[in-house]
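tokens incoming
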């Protein structure tokens, strides 16, 4: 059972990397330095950072809600536009049928090209 080794760091048995050798590029060197600080000052700093983090998360949540509302409003307006287009098309077809009956026309060729250039 001595031959069984557990790989806790996920780097394999021959890893030369230790916990102190790992550096994060996004953490400033002054943030992880070994400066002397009182426990009370550190707690105060941690409390302020928790408040800042809470505010940032609240802002992100509000921005996400606003983006979702904006997307929903856009979808609603697109649906209304499609509905109006459908009603207009139905009206045109109605008059075309009437013209076919009254004027004995054999048919019509027409198309509607919306703003985006793609037919419905």
């Amino acid at each position: 059972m001595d031959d069984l080794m557990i790989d806790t760091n996920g780097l394999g048995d021959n890893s030369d990397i230790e916990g102190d050798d790992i550096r994060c590029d996004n953490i400033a060197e002054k943030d992880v330095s070994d400066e002397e600080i009182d426990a009370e000052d550190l707690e105060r700093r941690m409390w302020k950072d928790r408040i800042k983090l809470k505010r940032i998360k609240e802002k992100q949540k509000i921005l996400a809600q606003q983006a979702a509302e904006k997307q929903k409003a856009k979808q609603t307006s697109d649906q209304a536009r499609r509905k109006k287009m459908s009603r207009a098309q139905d009206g045109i077809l109605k008059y075309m049928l009437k013209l076919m009956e009254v004027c004995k026309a054999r048919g019509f060729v027409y198309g509607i090209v919306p703003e985006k250039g793609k037919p419905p």
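note: The two ends are 71 Å apart (CA to CA).
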